[in-house]
Design goal:
heterodimer; A: Aldehyde Oxidoreductase, domain 3; four-stranded mixed β-sheet; about 35% strand; B: alpha+beta; Ubiquitin-like (UB roll); about 25% strand
Chain lengths: ~150, ~80
Amino acid sequence: MSVRVQSEPFDPGKELSDFSRTVSGAGAIVTFTGVVRDEDGTLDHMVIEHYPAMTGPAIEAIEKEATNRWHLQASLIIHRFGTMSPGDQIMMVATASRHRAHAFAAAEFLMDYLKSRAPFWKKEFSADGASWVTAKDEDEDALKRW
Amino acid sequence: MIDVVYFAWVRERIGLPKETLDTSAQTVMELVEELKAREERYSLAFADISALRVAVDQELSAFDASLKGVREVAFFPPMTGG
């Protein structure tokens, strides 16, 4: 189980191959990579702020919950903060399990919780100015299915 | 003494990321009321607490949470990770 919060970019392909090497006997590996949208070409860049003292513990608690609910051999969560441009990777989740159902479900659970319970805030900068991304009701509702 | 930290637009509206306060507030809500009474930038930031979230010692909490023994309180809008 591994959690990384970093400003540096990462290479999802390399992360996947490194992750794959650490899991033996996993018949299924699921990954999700979150990428900065260009918002139809209007977005110049995005800045992600976080709460350093809380971010690590909050993500670790979410990861622990996933491990309690599904049979996971391993999981990996990488989440960036700082300045990012359209097309840049923001975050990545990888889960490894004997069977795909657990790997998929755990990855979706991690994504839903990271969105609404990990202390990150996105600010978008475009030619029109800057604005904080607001949380959506559907993101909060997504937690109820777990 | 208690550290109070702010993030995202709450930080921008109040105009600072962190401050250390000498407070007699017993709960988060009492602390909010105390801050609102200080200056307009606080009353603006805390005008609608349903738009805010609070963490007490880095744990997401309710506004009626006790501040007994607490070292740090954080105010921020709903999180937008992922």
